[in-house]
Design a protein that fits this description.
Largest sheet: 7 strands, mixed
Mean pLDDT: 94
Structural class: alpha/beta
Low-confidence stretches: none
Strand order of the largest sheet: 3-2-1-4-5-10-6
Order of helices and strands: HHEHEEEHEHHEEHHEEE
Helix content: 25-40%
Shape: globular
């Protein structure tokens, strides 16, 4: 799937009012990333850059537990600024094209880099913004993410396997830790699944317009293929990566 940044931006902007309530998996992922990072970081942290901050799930953990002197947050959607805590420098826009102006002791981002068009190039870019001995802490999603949606519709993001991510990150950084997890949500109907995706802004991965026949086919196939005693499944496949800047030779 080609990444349409304007479509993604539109979907997330529309979901801002419902995101805090609906994106509970993303909130859990942000918390787990923060807890994993806590084992490797000394506090306080002088300067932090958070990419793809959304409505601030990870931002709030960073502010209340790492006591940063300076924290800069970035997101594709300018409107999320209303959810960002006071005292944080906010830089709106596409993280792939923004020139971040400073060096940071920690660069982090939760549930955001899966939207990038060129991950290896982006990692080389932010390496220039990472201070000596600085840490990179990222969560993203693996190949099983939304496997139900992809099987039925044939569309979705091109997710990396854990082994692929390990290879990509290790070409620029020294990997300290890489872990993966599976989180499954259950719904009573396919309609509820589509509503969940819309209200959490992730509906940008499916077609903009569906005919009645498309919707009927989706409903029938989902109910047939992914029903269980708990309901209809929707799979999340988070991957967590903590890495460090390589020493200058």
């Amino acid at each position: 799937m080609l990444i349409d940044k304007q479509r993604i931006k539109s979907a997330f902007t529309k979901a801002i009012p419902t995101y805090e309530h609906e994106a509970y998996i993303q909130q859990q992922i942000a918390k787990k990333l923060y807890k994993s990072l806590s084992a490797y970081i000394k506090r306080p942290v002088s300067s932090i850059l958070e990419i793809g901050c959304g409505t601030g799930f990870l931002t709030r953990f960073l502010c209340t537990h790492f006591y940063p002197e300076i924290i800069t947050a970035n997101d594709l959607c300018p409107e999320v600024i209303s959810h960002i805590p006071d005292g944080i420098k906010f830089i709106p826009g596409d993280m792939e094209s923004i020139v971040f102006p400073e060096k940071y002791d920690l660069i982090t981002g939760s549930s955001s880099i899966q939207w990038l068009t060129d991950l290896p190039l982006f990692l080389k870019k932010i390496d220039q913004n990472l201070a000596e001995k600085g840490l990179l802490a990222i969560s993203t999603f693996g190949e099983k993410n939304f496997m139900e949606i992809r099987e039925i519709t044939g569309t979705g993001l091109s997710y990396y396997k854990k082994s692929d991510l390990e290879q990509i990150f290790s070409s620029t950084f020294h990997i300290i830790e890489i872990k993966e997890d599976i989180k499954t949500l259950y719904f009573s109907s396919p309609k509820d699944i589509l509503l969940h995706m819309k209200q959490s802004g992730i509906n940008g991965i499916v077609a903009n317009r569906w005919t009645k026949a498309d919707l009927m086919n989706f409903t029938n196939q989902y109910s047939k293929l992914f029903n269980s005693n708990n309901g209809l499944s929707l799979t999340y496949h988070p991957i967590y990566i903590i890495a460090q800047k390589r020493k200058n030779k």
